[in-house]
Amino acid sequence: MSKLQENNNAGALSHIRVVELGDIPASYATRLLADLGADVADSRIGNRVALATSLAEGLGITEAAPSSRAAEEIVAAAEEIMRRAR
Predict the structure, then answer these.
(1) For the chain, what are the domain ranges?
(2) 18 - beta bridge partners?
(3) Which of 11, 24, 65, 84 has the fewest other C-beta atoms within 10 Å?
(4) In 3-state terms, what secondary structure has residue 80?
(5) Could you give the C-alpha distances from 37 to 13, 57, 82, in angstroms and in order?
(6) Triad 63, 39, 71: Cα angle to 5°
(7) Cβ-contact 30, 13 below 8 angstroms
(8) 86 neighbors 79 (Cβ within 8 angstroms)
């Protein structure tokens, strides 16, 4: 348990769920949110060129580049979200 959690046993953000979208600054912010009690997903979605390109083309990443790392990250995040929603 972090010092922030010790100071706030209930967790001010215990009702919040977080999926990280980004790189190093986002990782730091995600850790802070977790310290405040947020439920942070295990999967991460990185800043990928293939993802941005597919969105610009009006496609989902699993349509535009189904075997890319970006598609793997999106599928993993979607599966985790669905698993947690049950």
Answers:
(1) 1-47, 48-86
(2) 40
(3) 24
(4) helix
(5) 5, 38, 21
(6) 15
(7) no
(8) no
